[in-house]
């Protein structure tokens, strides 16, 4: 088994046609056929079922493609990372994330203050579909086949106006409250999954991406909203609202610092340590629930 055989195999799967695969790879069609046949002989299984000129991927072929394609993606990423890492004195750091977060303001400040020579760049995109080089990802769940460190674990509270004296809210009572939701985002998805799992269908009166607007409306008693205890506290004034634990034990969300396996530059290591230490210190400034 060699890389050429695997390359031919993945292209045939993508096109499901030997001739089209040969044309795209700029090789003769018999070479593709012979390579697939040799690969099947070595594996001892049929990767395709032939029905005339039509190809059907077998269960073994489908599994093999999944593994091989993942490996090729890792090789491509390794190539990009090698090109990006020129020396241990590389001064550029790129962070990729699904959405902007209030933590970015703090990240920019502490990195610039500690390492003013670093050129810090951010990529906002879907985590799985962007092949551009990055040094770190901010993600809500660990990324498979990467190194993942827990950056932040924070409780999510229900925010109401100061007039509400309750210290905790039972889950069923949330159904009775008018609620402001965040626009589509990983945090909004996280809240929605939690509510759905608890069979809670709140009365949503407004959706917005403006956190300060949400907090001001809550403070005025217009509605309630969900607030993460740490990350929003960086840029949003939470002192004018009350925060209430949800249920007896509350519920939490996590943010991970994820990055590819392999050698790291000294700058990458220093930035990772700086971000982890900063986020771990946020607990000291937590706004206590009512």
TrEMBL record:
Residues 1-58 form the HTH lysR-type domain. CDD domains: PBP2_LTTR_substrate. Coiled coil: none annotated. It comes from the Bacteria. InterPro entries: LysR_HTH_N (IPR000847), LysR_subst-bd (IPR005119), WH-like_DNA-bd_sf (IPR036388), WH_DNA-bd_sf (IPR036390). Keywords: DNA-binding, Transcription, Transcription regulation. It holds the Pfam family LysR_substrate. Belongs to the LysR transcriptional regulatory family. PANTHER family: HTH-TYPE TRANSCRIPTIONAL REGULATOR CYNR, TRANSCRIPTIONAL DUAL REGULATOR HCAR-RELATED. This is LysR family transcriptional regulator.
């Amino acid at each position: 088994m060699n890389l050429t055989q695997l390359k031919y195999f993945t292209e045939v799967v993508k096109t499901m046609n030997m001739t089209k695969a040969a044309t795209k790879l700029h090789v003769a069609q018999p070479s593709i056929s012979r390579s697939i046949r040799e690969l099947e002989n070595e594996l001892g299984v049929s990767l395709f079922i032939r029905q005339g000129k039509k190809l059907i991927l077998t269960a073994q072929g489908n599994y093999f493609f999944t593994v091989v394609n993942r490996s090729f993606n890792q090789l491509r990423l390794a190539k990009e990372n090698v090109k990006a890492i020129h020396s241990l004195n590389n001064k550029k750091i790129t962070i990729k994330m699904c959405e902007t977060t209030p933590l970015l303001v703090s990240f920019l400040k502490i990195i610039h203050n500690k390492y003013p020579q670093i050129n810090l760049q951010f990529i906002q995109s879907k985590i799985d579909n962007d092949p551009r080089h990055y040094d770190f990802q901010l993600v809500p769940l660990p990324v498979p086949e990467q190194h993942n460190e827990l950056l932040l674990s924070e409780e999510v509270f229900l925010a109401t106006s100061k007039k509400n004296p309750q210290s905790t809210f039972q889950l069923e009572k949330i159904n009775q409250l008018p609620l402001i939701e965040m626009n589509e985002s990983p945090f909004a998805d996280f809240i929605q999954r939690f509510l759905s799992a608890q069979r809670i269908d709140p009365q949503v009166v407004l959706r917005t991406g403006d956190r300060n607007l949400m907090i001001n409306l809550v403070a005025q008693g217009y509605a309630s909203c969900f607030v993460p205890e740490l990350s929003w506290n960086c840029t949003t004034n939470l002192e004018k609202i009350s925060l209430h634990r949800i249920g007896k034990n509350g519920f939490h969300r996590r943010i991970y610092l994820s990055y590819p396996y392999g050698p790291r530059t000294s700058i990458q290591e220093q930035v990772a340590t700086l971000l982890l230490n900063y986020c771990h210190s946020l607990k000291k400034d937590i706004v206590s629930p009512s």
